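Sequence and structure are no longer studied apart. To make this concrete, we show below a single chain and its fold as tokens.
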Amino acid sequence: MSDILDVSHQREAIAKAAAYLSGILEPHFKKTAKFEPPRTLIICGSGLGGISTKLSIDNPPPITIPYQDIPGFKKSTVPGHSGTLMFGSMNGSPVVLMNGRLHGYEGNTLFETTFPIRVLNHMGHVHNLIVTNAAGGINAKYQACDLMCIYDHLNIPGLAGQHPLRGPNLDEVGPRFLALSDAYDLELRKLLFKKWKELKIQRPLHEGTYTFVSGPTFETRAESKMIRMLGGDAVGMSTVPEVIVARHCGWRVLALSLITNTCVVDSPASALDESPVPLEKGKATHAEVLENGKIASNDVQNLIAAVMEEL
């Protein structure tokens, strides 16, 4: 797909993918009278694909559809992202999971990274988005394996012109000029904290601002310092385009970050230092992201499943 598709090509691509999914889902689920179309989309971030283990195995049985089989979907290329849509039920609530997401740094356009949301919206049943991610901690109070409920964001690429709503507007879906001051639903955030208390999760749950950067490089020290000065509490390479498109569709949004590493904000060692701090100290790696994702994944899975009880 080109960077910007005209409206007719957008509509055609969305309708084609929606028709394909309907053609698979209807025969699969027609054997059970208990099936309801999903009302909630859950996007599983890096190392958080285990959320799928919370799907019920019967009544109805889940179905998994690889991205590459769906017209218009791109294949996920990132370790820790299986790249499948999973339809089923979680704690009695019909749900669809994106087990792994698509990123711009993989070479996808913003239309392609948010295409699944457009397709599910076209199918007409999903109205809630629960999005999870792995993020670097910018706030000095955050530690690796803490959780953060997102209540605001900084869209760095968007401020520079790389915005998911750039181009012709789908007027039948949402407005040309979309307000985002209410992007993260207050009642859903209250529900998340309520379930965190009920489950007696010992892992800290903060509330803060997520900063979206394009990646795929982890931030320099100066960039991390800048993000902290701008008011960012965590930083990552996803989520914000998905949130913006979901809000354009009129969905409610709940977003949860797993802090997988703490970002380095101290200035690098000077060549003039007699005993410099090694530059490698605190350096982020994708292996660290996945490993800390495993450590905290059970709490994330249980928390999301508990929220789903009331959606």
